[in-house]
Amino acid sequence: MYKTNIESSIMELLEPKVKEIQDKFSKGEKLGLQDFNLLLLKTQYNHINHLDQKLDEVVADVASLRGEFNDKFNGLRGEFQLLETRINGRLDVFEQKIETNINKTIIKNMAWTIGSITFIIAFLKIIDIIFK
Known about the structure:
Blueprint (H helix, E strand, L loop, with lengths): L4 H22 L6 H98 L2
């Protein structure tokens, strides 16, 4: 982990005194308020240092997860774009088929209409010729 010069200097200053306090405690000697304060300071520094390390790990994990999410999201985006292209292609074919069917139907209806009109006109002309 990265430590600043101040953090390193503080720990260098605390270590010899903490060692003295540990020796004093192991001999069963009475510890003073300053001794407790120094031990508390070192403990809190260690705790903060540990939390900093954990925070660095969490930040790295979040960055990793962000990268994985972006990769998967971009993959899904690509798949959706491919699906959209396929659907659009199929819709174009479907529209062409519908248009072709409509054109055929219009031509067929026009042929039947013209044929019917021609038949009626011819029939009426024949009747007109016969009954004149």
